Amino acid sequence: MEIKQVDYTQNSQQLLKKLDDYTKVKVPDLTGYESQKISFSIEEAGEVLGGIVGEIHWNYLRIELFYVAENTRGKGVGKQLLEHVEQLAKEAKCQLIVLETMSFNAPGFYLKNGYQEIGKIEEHPLPAEAHYFMMKRIAVS
């Protein structure tokens, strides 16, 4: 037996295939979903005011990256992006949205927008900070 460093892209694709094959056997109800990458920016006069990146996988949407320019925070830019992605999740029949954020990245913003804290790591990534795991259930019509 040997552990060796291998190419990230090749390894992740291979592992994803193996995990998907395993899932098809164990939980066949999850096999009808296609993964979809999402990526949006909001711009004004050629300036990027914010952006959001994520992936729809199975029956949920995972927000991977979310940024709002400092000079536009508190002006509804983030809310517009979040609502846009939530609408996309509804159209894709997602049941929930999940994300991670840090204490210095406005977890209160997500709470105000209907997300709930489902986990928290205190003293991470620094002693006075916290790492949050959040979700929001989506009402599928």
Q: Could you characterize the architecture of this molecule?
A:
With about 140 residues, this protein is an alpha+beta fold. It has one domain: Gcn5-related N-acetyltransferase (GNAT) (Aminopeptidase, 3-Layer(aba) Sandwich). About 30% of the residues lie in helices and about 35% in strands. It contains three helices and six strands. It has helices at about 10-25, 75-90, 105-110; strands spanning about 35-45, 45-55, 60-70, 95-100, 115-120, 130-135. It has a six-stranded mixed β-sheet. A hairpin with a 7-residue loop joins strand 5 (about 115-120) and strand 6. It is globular, with a radius of gyration of 18 Å. The protein starts with 7 loop residues before the first helix and ends with a strand. The mean pLDDT is about 95.
Task: Give a concise summary.
Keywords: Acyltransferase, Transferase. The chain is α+β, with helices and mostly antiparallel strands.
